[in-house]
């Protein structure tokens, strides 16, 4: 089957029941989205499909309709995505394993709400687990990303 | 004897420290017991000066940070030690874990294993620390744990940077025909100002490597530090915001197969009946093989992709044996509670005469309480995994691990290849919290690599396997009594704490032929060694033999006893009608470092202020891993449950190498402790763990996270650890706040058994 991932068209030869996550990681070699739970409970595998955050660990690859964006597809030749830049500026990551998923959810949040409140952030990010406890910095980084994005636009 | 010993030792240090410009130290090169492992793996044009520094003629500078980067930021701090003295900025260097090697022994990890209180600087305590440190060196124990990496690396890695710099400068002096003392270094360049000439480190690296290492080096004074003592951008941050493939699970090798394991959910048993035919016939499955190790028995499923392996593992039809331990959770926990009440105890701290102090105590002046905590899983975000390849007599292991020398040792043995033909590549870790100090994931990958005709195989566990297989944070129960004096302060405290011997458990699955008896200091860590002066004060260990595998979990025994000790101290304060913070000030009077922390956190949190109805604060303090940590948490009653509003943390780490990383670790440790306190437990039914994934073994979510304010203090004259220190006081601070808010004293974790959280 054919998928559009990070702006590129790729051919994937997999059981249509295979979750998108494993098709990306084990077949297409796209390693940005991580495996955390397999039941959509932790968000480490979050990718965007047509801009909306999706848990790729439970979505059968055969049911994917729309363009898939992973952490590997959000920066541009001009530099990091404002959310990544804000994550870097705030030094958010510790082990870093959940952060690809956190960043993708934050990217989607800022598309929907340009300048989110703490409550908006808590509502949007509740499905993304972090065992290192980077939450206070995630909040700060999303506020910073909002400012960066507004300044760039 | 004691006085003379102490005096002699100090005199030597003073004599050595009077050199102008810094502290002269005998450079370790001449005393190093092990060869430099980097000599075996140099690239073309690259040289190495010692186990921590490689310089290439193209000016690539590689520093080795030989402790597991599992999120705590240690790669940045260790690299900064070397970079400070080498005189390069962190953005100029590449930082690697390096190969497994005895040269990277962790002396500090054993130093505090002698069971002395952290503040005890008597001759005996110091001698034992010295001997234990030598033992760590001689054992070549390359280990990450015990919040020791910064303390262990502080001298050695700065010396390594300084020595390499001297050799580079000497080479430049020879090349330029000037004296070395006419040269200065500036971020990787050696400058001769008088003639306006300069050479880069890369340009002189090959010459420098021929120079004899200096016999001693002079380290910079603290006032001259450019990197240390200041927050550095983490060297791993860019990779960690771009989704770079740096984790064990991201390893990709040509022709690689994928696999998973299904290991017995009943500990210590093998399958009694199994049928793998249906699973073997599933699409994408290459092979299903039996696994039998001291860690567990079951099956390895090798497939064309991870998902196919997961599906087939689930489809294996298997019946496991009966457990050799009680099947029901209540029965398991009752063994600890009973033992705490009446089991054979050995006193680990015994001040005054506790039995006499209780013998004539009036009934109304005695309080008694029973506490318990459950088993816990580590649940790092990256499930256990490991990749292995056994080809042409060489074993390669790509492992997110905390113990590379042990991984090499055990896996080479299992594969039947010599240690010298076993390469362990330590990847970044998506969390570890002690779990990756175990070896099972590496053993299983090695076993499966023997079945794939030289093809590499990546073994990824399901979250369910990761949650259920242990080894766990030990469960524990405590039985506590206190006699309250007329002034409201405790006259006598008797603490009996019952748990499994963690070291016996660990040895049973690694070195079963070695005897592993004796005391396990972790059973009472965080209770027996706290800076309180109470006239009659006894803390006893009671061992409970049980075949449930247990291990290190962030802050180890302190995670248990921080809750027990500080919860009970809060009860004592309440019974004596003394403010809990005021009570600490009085009981800790002999320990100025502790008092300063207590005062600081009380001031930050405005302790004692009148709060609006429906809000309350709780306080707790734990000295662990050499750092003194006080926490206050404020909570509020809301219609959705209890909300954690804000936590204040004051910590004395002795010397703060990287304030931003320390602050991040304090909040991280506290959230880790709060997560466990609020809702985590591993329980058993029919001898099998009931929890399986994040839906029933969750952790704090962002909407539950309080605001944090952290103060870092540098009072105590010895450096403490950082990675685990924030965890122990978090649970008791929260439980004490809940008591202040609701009047409900919760003595059993998790707290969600009795209250709900917003």
TrEMBL record, chain A:
Pfam families reported in the protein's UniProt record: Fer2 (PF00111), Fer2_2 (PF01799)
Keyword list, A-Z: 2Fe-2S, Iron, Iron-sulfur, Metal-binding, Oxidoreductase
PROSITE patterns: 2FE2S_FER_1, 2FE2S_FER_2
InterPro entries in the record: 2Fe-2S-bd, 2Fe-2S-bd_dom_sf, 2Fe-2S_ferredoxin-like_sf, 2Fe-2S_ferredoxin-type, 2Fe2S_fd_BS, Beta-grasp_dom_sf, Diverse_Oxidoreductases
Domain called 2Fe-2S ferredoxin-type: residue spans: 1-74
UniProt feature coiled coil, ranges: none
MF GO annotations: 2 iron, 2 sulfur cluster binding; metal ion binding; oxidoreductase activity
Superkingdom of origin: Bacteria
PANTHER family: BLR6218 PROTEIN (PTHR44379:SF2), OXIDOREDUCTASE WITH IRON-SULFUR SUBUNIT (PTHR44379)
Protein name: (2Fe-2S)-binding protein
Originating species: Neoaquamicrobium microcysteis
Automatic annotation (TrEMBL), chain B:
Segments forming domain Aldehyde oxidase/xanthine dehydrogenase a/b hammerhead: 242-324
GO MF: oxidoreductase activity
Keywords, alphabetical: Membrane, Transmembrane, Transmembrane helix
Bilayer-crossing regions: 12-30
SUPFAM superfamilies (UniProt xref): CO dehydrogenase molybdoprotein N-domain-like (SSF54665), Molybdenum cofactor-binding domain (SSF56003)
Pfam families (UniProt xref): MoCoBD_1 (PF02738), MoCoBD_2 (PF20256)
Keyword Transmembrane belongs to the record: yes
InterPro entries referenced in this protein's UniProt entry, alphabetically: Ald_Oxase/Xan_DH_a/b, Ald_Oxase/Xan_DH_a/b_sf, AldOxase/xan_DH_MoCoBD1, AldOxase/xan_DH_MoCoBD2, AldOxase/xan_DH_Mopterin-bd_sf, N-heterocyclic_Hydroxylase, OxRdtase_Mopterin-bd_su_IorB, TAT_signal
Protein name as catalogued: Xanthine dehydrogenase family protein molybdopterin-binding subunit
Organism of derivation: Neoaquamicrobium microcysteis
Higher taxonomy: Bacteria, Pseudomonadati, Pseudomonadota, Alphaproteobacteria, Hyphomicrobiales
